[in-house]
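quick one
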Amino acid sequence: MTPDMSVEVGALQLRGPVLAASGTFGYGTEVPLLERRALGAMVSKGIFLRPREGTAPPRIAETPSGMLNAIGLQGPGADALVRDYAPKWAGWDFPVLVNINAESASEYGELAARLDGVPGIAGFEINISCPNVEQGGLYFGNDPRAAAAVTEAVRGRTKLPVWVKLTPMVSDIGVIARAVESAGADALCAINTFVGMSIDLNSYGPRLSFRTGGLSGPAIRPLAVHLAHQAARAVHIPVIGIGGISSAEDALEFLVAGCTAVQVGTATFVNPKAIAEVHDGVAAFLEAKGFSSLAHLPRYLPRD
Amino acid sequence: MTPDMSVEVGALQLRGPVLAASGTFGYGTEVPLLERRALGAMVSKGIFLRPREGTAPPRIAETPSGMLNAIGLQGPGADALVRDYAPKWAGWDFPVLVNINAESASEYGELAARLDGVPGIAGFEINISCPNVEQGGLYFGNDPRAAAAVTEAVRGRTKLPVWVKLTPMVSDIGVIARAVESAGADALCAINTFVGMSIDLNSYGPRLSFRTGGLSGPAIRPLAVHLAHQAARAVHIPVIGIGGISSAEDALEFLVAGCTAVQVGTATFVNPKAIAEVHDGVAAFLEAKGFSSLAHLPRYLPRD
Amino acid sequence: MFLLDAPITGRRQVARGMFVIGMQAPEIASTVRAGQFVNLGWSAGPLLRRPFSVYRSDGVHIEVVLKAVGEGTRQLLAMDVGEHISCLGPLGHGFEFGAGTRTAVLISGGLGVAPMPLAARDARQAGARVTWVHGARTAVELCSETEGDEILWATDDGSEGARGTAVAASPDAELVLACGPNRMLAAVAERWPEAQVAVETYMGCGTGVCLGCAVPLQRGGYDRACREGPVYRAADIDWGALPSHLAYAVTA
Amino acid sequence: MFLLDAPITGRRQVARGMFVIGMQAPEIASTVRAGQFVNLGWSAGPLLRRPFSVYRSDGVHIEVVLKAVGEGTRQLLAMDVGEHISCLGPLGHGFEFGAGTRTAVLISGGLGVAPMPLAARDARQAGARVTWVHGARTAVELCSETEGDEILWATDDGSEGARGTAVAASPDAELVLACGPNRMLAAVAERWPEAQVAVETYMGCGTGVCLGCAVPLQRGGYDRACREGPVYRAADIDWGALPSHLAYAVTA
Ligand SMILES: Cc1cc2nc3c(=O)[nH]c(=O)nc-3n(C[C@H](O)[C@H](O)[C@H](O)COP(=O)(O)OP(=O)(O)OC[C@H]3O[C@@H](n4cnc5c(N)ncnc54)[C@H](O)[C@@H]3O)c2cc1C
Ligand SMILES: Cc1cc2nc3c(=O)[nH]c(=O)nc-3n(C[C@H](O)[C@H](O)[C@H](O)COP(=O)(O)OP(=O)(O)OC[C@H]3O[C@@H](n4cnc5c(N)ncnc54)[C@H](O)[C@@H]3O)c2cc1C
Ligand SMILES: Cc1cc2nc3c(=O)[nH]c(=O)nc-3n(C[C@H](O)[C@H](O)[C@H](O)COP(=O)(O)O)c2cc1C
Ligand SMILES: Cc1cc2nc3c(=O)[nH]c(=O)nc-3n(C[C@H](O)[C@H](O)[C@H](O)COP(=O)(O)O)c2cc1C
Ligand code: FES
Ligand code: FES
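structure w/ flavin mononucleotide:
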């Protein structure tokens, strides 16, 4: 008997705990070899209210068990998203959340208002943690008051689920997590990429045109498990674990460490079937251990 | 003609820019196959004033391109260090700095005073960044005032070079770097390990008995290069780059990014000849590029 | 698009340091078009897949041509016949061959030979007389496998064919296809704005989802080399903004 | 201590899933003592080296015995004769053989056979009559290579030899040497406090500089398995504090 893999993230009922991470799945329309049955939900590429060109190339650099990226949130803007993608999402059998980005709390609110109620859009993931935009991004993620203000601005403009994606570049993630919970977030996503740099020994300068980039991939997994766990200990809303997941065992580390669900990012680049394999692998693990439901997985979540 | 590899770290003249990192070289007495000629300096395993047992096993866990450790600063204490190791160091042809640890600013000062003037001890590296002790450690590294207080406490008790080893677990390393510079540090060491966690799917709990550990190795290199670079931009004293260096190219990334010297840690576990290979590789690079001295290596160090 | 576990079926040398690897990948071999690429991964390899143009196809096997320029290519060249490579493809848009084209010139710098055997095949099928101009630093680095109605060589040192670049050695033609270092392609764009060129960028996914392979366009903004490219109308690219010194850029 | 690039010279199977790999490593082969280990690394392998007891030595070659229990051992077993393994050793302190010992029993659980062929050799050289007791879950998992004056078997399912553990099946002797899962060694310690046991821990460096391989001692504090160990007087270890469920622990 296949175990019950469904999870509840706030009011949102998902058929499985494995989600597609923002920026690694495009708008879901171009993903090769997509096996929908395994997808709990998708978070679309980060969007701003207005179109953005993104950063100049080179945009990515490989590092040991990881990659740096500085895409710069290239995107078509909210109007094009509503026109070109949302109608397609409306017909899909899994929810799509939009990863929203802005340069001020009020602009976050404006963007949420523009997208609220559009068929096909099931919720929002607030990105307060993008390391690759000059203003905004990380700043909101570092400061509990700013993070709360952004959350409130969005919360005030929509009844849809609001998730907040945290940055790892803080000295105490629990403080930010609690601030965002109090401000009305339905769930936390932990974590976004770490800021990194790689130097080109031919040009004696950074490999990336943006100079720095966000580190993702297996290299960051132990850091991400720790941070997701710390966030989960700090709040009572669900935490979605992200960072370096490429196998069922990796996903299970986050789930045991207190996460309700997980997102898979970079692994999809390497293996287009990664999400399905992670989903199926978690189910097989539960079955082998005799758990009839993911809810029965033992958790390691001491409360302070 | 072999290029001039010597570097000046404050008042300390080193024959080469490649140093042994604390905790990965023991007390220098048990290192296999040591090629001294290539060693710019050694930093001894972190010590407390009094003996410490360290944490229960398991103490290490491997992760993609990295490892977590929670040794817990096991060590014999200052008296045994002075008795058993310093006399050996006094006969060596490279300087040995002692990595010092304590639970309060005054205890840091006390430890420095106990070791000051002991033949064989060439300086101090203040560890305000150890993730593996219950009190102290990270706390000092997170807070600019506490970091400065510790630096002053040590600075007031010794004329020897004082280096301060920074934690990466901060939202702005520049703030800590400047605080420590103002408090009288001769150099900064960036960085110590990142806090991480790994979950055992048999026991449904952390792999390490200490629960969390410090992540080191190639996985963290892009993050370390970024942080060392940010520290170097923030201050005018030398910065020593640390994190994931296992080849000459890795070391050159830190040197180009503004570091005066580097430390090699985890790589020594994998390849006992790593330090010599890094040193010789940097020399070969300079020679191939036609630089007669390391001082001529182009740097990427824009000042804000 | 297919994801196959393809056994290596053969390997041969075609120039100093340059090798062709054959793999059994029927679904890809039977659908690939000239200029398209595959994204290769293998166990204990680097994190990201590595993109390679399809060099030849017999409908069942595909071939790629490569040199060891870094760790990934070094590992690929150390693999034995019978070992498996995970093969994602065919990817990207290939060359377009208008019917009724009478003359075609294929210009390849160094490893830029990679998409040309399929291009030569298709250009001749489209009815064109094919001239292939192949350049390298020196004679021993010229790929020994070229085909067409006319073959021209160019070497930097004049050790074979014309001294100078392949672009300089090229005649004009109705259809100009080029592949090589981005610097060389910029020179092609200068002379033949309508030429079709296959560019190189770093790639994250190869499938259009990461936006890592940005190609700056004359009209502003960026395209994805892996999806809208890797083949472009030469005049459409903002060559000044396209990095031409990728660590893995092949030399001409 | 030596760091050698050792070519693989042979491989053979000795039980279900259990293989012996031979390497040419003369400096190590000519100095290794029973119970010592080597730390193996290889290109495109995991970050850290992997420790293995030396199974046999002929003065020029060394052998190790292993099963695929994870990615590292899987990769090692996939390597071919002629490929190179970086070999650091000999490491640690081995077994001690007092002169004049008349009877020795060697107790090995599963992969705990690893140090025993050398131990059998040295025990006999020291003049002892050697009894080797080897246990495993089931008959096909018993190592086929055992030696000594008397061989006893034990299997959990009774499919070969005594039903039960190797410890239970052992006679008493003047010298007791044991290797296997830490749980088994704890049972040895209970019965023969003076036994010499070779323990398993995770290791960072294998050379004494990282303090990662902590072995908790009865007298308090920790020793380094790689330096003071891996062989200990059984009564010296605080067995309750030594993890016995390492992911790679061999089963008895
Ligand atoms: C569409 C396309 C077709 C190509 N066709 C061919 C071909 O037919 N034959 C051929 O020989 N080469 C071809 N290349 C180039 C080939 O992909 C590179 O030479 C190869 O990826 C280098 O890998 P490596 O591991 O050997 O080198 P590395 O040492 O990994 O590469 C050198 C540097 O480039 C970086 N790098 C390498 N790959 C990537 C990546 N995917 N993303 C980000 N950074 C990266 C590394 O970090 C490193 O710094 C093609 C490239 C593209 C985009
Ligand atoms: C002194 C000594 C002698 C040994 N002799 C033998 C022998 O003769 N034959 C034999 O088969 N086995 C022996 N072992 C055990 C052997 O070293 C392990 O089985 C092997 O390291 C497992 O590696 P793997 O990559 O296959 O497994 P992995 O999948 O890497 O190991 C399983 C888990 O253990 C962790 N791990 C593995 N190695 C380490 C390490 N060094 N440090 C920290 N974590 C680690 C991994 O992270 C993983 O979670 C010995 C161990 C020691 C300490
Ligand atoms: C190429 C790329 C683009 C990304 N774009 C976004 C984005 O637009 N918004 C966002 O919140 N996170 C973005 N991320 C971060 C991922 O969603 C994820 O948090 C991170 O990559 C860590 O997970 P991973 O290790 O599984 O990739 C991006 C990551 C990558 C690699
Ligand atoms: C096993 C181990 C023990 C360490 N002990 C100390 C220590 O005692 N004091 C200290 O300041 N840093 C200690 N470190 C941190 C290293 O000195 C270094 O900062 C870190 O490992 C990053 O460098 P690497 O990636 O080259 O290992 C230790 C690291 C490891 C892996
Ligand atoms: S390589 Fe990912 S979009 Fe082109
Ligand atoms: S493994 Fe490093 S001290 Fe023993």
